[in-house]
Backbone:
């Protein structure tokens, strides 16, 4: 533990070269900022998922780092040292040079980000320590974007404010390689799906709607099939402790199995 704290204090964070920007889109809200220049240029993207226990961090770097499907990434918020481990994939940029890494976290990975001075990102030993001045105000704008996004998806953004406890569970464990549709493997189809699940008071998924398609019908349909037939949640509770109907936003990244 002492060694970890010493490492967190070892290097000065890189200062930003742009202002915070919030991208408003039909399928996501992303808070981003640029750092460095030339071969050291980095773009940080923060994508907490509303009505979910998931959040994503996107890191765009220069160079030709190796493609990776299931690397281990860790973030730490400074100066608190609050850290979380997640899984990341790294791929070539669709257009132009560089690499994009998307790190998926469960739980409270970004809890306390508004008070952070910097964020430390470690991708299998490759470290990026980035200063986050003005993050509290930027997060308020991001929250407003997320409210608009939920309305676009047909969800009342005040729903969670009325809950005593939120929907809980670990739905990711139901989306392993064995669930990958065989037809999608043959056709080499992969992509990211975002689905909105209507969670009943008994924890079952009563409805499932794809709000962001992978681009492939079979992956979209399989996502909702698994949500409706296999996933079970701990239901949300009202202020009096009674189970109530609620919603859960589930991102699923279908990546072709390597075996």
Residues:
């Amino acid at each position: 533990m002492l060694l970890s704290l010493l490492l967190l204090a070892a290097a000065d964070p890189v200062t930003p070269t742009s202002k915070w920007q919030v991208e408003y889109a039909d399928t996501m809200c992303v808070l981003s900022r640029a750092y460095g220049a030339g071969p050291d240029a980095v773009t940080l993207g923060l994508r907490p998922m509303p009505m979910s226990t998931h959040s994503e961090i996107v890191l765009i770097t220069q160079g030709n780092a190796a493609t990776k499907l299931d690397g281990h990434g860790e973030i730490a918020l400074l100066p608190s040292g609050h850290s979380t481990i997640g899984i990341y994939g790294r791929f070539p940029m669709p257009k132009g040079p560089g690499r994009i890494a998307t790190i998926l976290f469960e739980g409270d990975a970004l809890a306390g980000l508004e008070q952070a001075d910097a964020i430390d990102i470690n991708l299998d030993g490759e470290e990026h320590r980035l200063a986050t001045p003005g993050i509290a105000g930027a997060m308020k704008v991001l929250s407003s974007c997320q409210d608009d996004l939920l309305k676009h998806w047909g969800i009342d953004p005040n729903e969670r404010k009325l809950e005593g406890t939120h929907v809980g569970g670990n739905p990711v464990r139901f989306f392993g390689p064995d669930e990958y549709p065989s037809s999608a493997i043959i056709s080499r189809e992969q992509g990211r799906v975002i689905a909105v699940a209507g969670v009943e008071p008994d924890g079952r998924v009563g409805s499932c709607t794809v709000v962001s398609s992978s681009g492939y019908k079979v992956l979209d349909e399989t996502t909702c099939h698994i949500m409706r037939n296999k996933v079970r949640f701990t239901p949300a509770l009202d202020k009096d402790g009674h189970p109530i109907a609620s919603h859960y936003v589930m991102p699923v990244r279908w990546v072709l199995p390597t075996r």
